[in-house]
Amino acid sequence: MKNTHDRLDLLHTFIRIGESGSLSKAARLLDTTQPTVSRRLLELERLLGCKLAIRNTANFSLTDEGRSLLAEAHDLTDRWSGLSQRLQGGQSRPEGTLRVIGPSGYGTGFLTDAVTDLRAAHPQLRVELTLTDRVVDLAASGAECWVCVGEVRDPGLVCRTVGRMERVLIATPELLKRTGPVTLARLPQLPCVGLIPYVTGNVRLINRAGRSRIVPLDTPIRTDSLLASYRAILNGAGIGAAAPWMCHEDMQAGRLKRVLPNWWLEPIGVHVALPPGLYRPARVTAFVEALRQRMHALPGFRPAA
């Protein structure tokens, strides 16, 4: 190998091979020939002293070492690109593959909208959106950012607060007919739908004057899924909590009613958690901005200062 630039070229070729799963597809993406791609792969294997792929006429797959290198190669090429851009005083454009993790409820709403906005502005960008309501090990996932609700407990992550989301109590009109008027005093005796870990046990309610009350909830149904919680509320299973952006249309249509309209649950923070480090690929910065713009238009959202 002549210099570091050659090694980066080999890594770039290997990324295309790993992502496409085929030497011929990688060659088309790189606008070169399959023998050239095959030769570069062989050169990289010789340089590293290990087998990176199993290739024959019927099958192509990465070895364990190849899969490990693919994860590392993304980071190495991104860092080099960022260093080059900073030294040249330029601004890199969003490109490559953005890997995002987010909660399922948000993902089926404005998070997907933010991703499609981003792709519309930068068609060359690819996005992998993974939705889960579980706590994420960002380093192990291989994702570049995690949109999370509530407190980020991992001190090793860089946390950017997008803003805070209001939450209100809601229920179906049919349920409220059966329960009668809902008051703060009666709320602990009424069935509620729990959302783990945000709406369960004791919750804090705040009124317009800023006064707060701690109220215990009886939650015979609990779930860690925002979508399942909301579905249970719509089914009349109990009083529950939702952000205004989620329940706005159902309230307008009369399918849901506000409970205790002078009280709100404590607003909850929405954050973008990032791996540690100073360099952020342009695609990550562009995604965070697209998310901010989408969320700023949501009812009940309070942007971060």
List its salient traits.
alpha+beta; ten-stranded mixed beta sheet; two-stranded antiparallel sheet; 10 helices; 42% helix; elongated; disordered N terminus
Give a verbal description of the structure.
Helix 2 (23-30) crosses helix 3. Strands 3, 4, 5, 6, 8, 9, 11, 12, 13 and 14 form a ten-stranded mixed β-sheet that branches. The chain has a two-stranded antiparallel sheet with strand order 1-2. The longest helix has 25 residues, at 64-88. It is elongated and about 75 Å long. The chain has two domains: 4-88, Winged helix-like DNA-binding domain superfamily/Winged helix DNA-binding domain (Arc Repressor Mutant, subunit A), CATH 1.10.10.10; 97-305, D-Maltodextrin-Binding Protein, domain 2 (3-Layer(aba) Sandwich), CATH 3.40.190.290. It has 305 residues and is an alpha+beta fold. 42% of the residues lie in helices and 26% in strands.
How do the strands and helices of this protein lay out in sequence?
Layout: H1 4-20, H2 23-30, H3 34-48, E1 53-55, E2 60-62, H4 64-88, E3 97-102, H5 104-121, E4 126-131, H6 138-141, E5 145-149, E6 158-171, H7 173-179, E7 191-195, E8 202-207, E9 212-216, E10 218-223, H8 226-234, E11 240-242, H9 244-252, E12 257-259, E13 263-274, H10 282-296, E14 301-303
Parallel strand pairs: 3-4, 3-5, 7-10
Antiparallel strand pairs: 1-2, 5-13, 6-11, 6-12, 6-13, 6-14, 8-9, 8-13
Secondary-structure content class = alpha+beta
What percentage of amino acids are in beta strands?
Answer: 25-35%
Strand count: 14
The CATH architecture term of the largest domain is 3-Layer(aba) Sandwich
- For this structure, what is the CATH class of the largest domain? Alpha Beta
Q: In which range does the helix fraction lie? A: 40-55%
Number of helices: 10
Low-confidence stretches: 1-5
Q: Ends: how far apart?
A: 50 Å
Q: Helices and strands, in N-to-C order?
A: HHHEEHEHEHEEHEEEEHEHEEHE
Q: Average pLDDT across residues?
A: 88
The CATH topology assignment of the largest domain is: D-Maltodextrin-Binding Protein, domain 2
Radius of gyration: 25 Å
Characterize the main sheet: 10 strands, mixed
Overall structural domain count: 2
| Shape estimate | elongated
GO molecular function, one term: DNA-binding transcription factor activity
Domain HTH lysR-type: 6-63
Family: Belongs to the LysR transcriptional regulatory family.
Protein name: LysR family transcriptional regulator
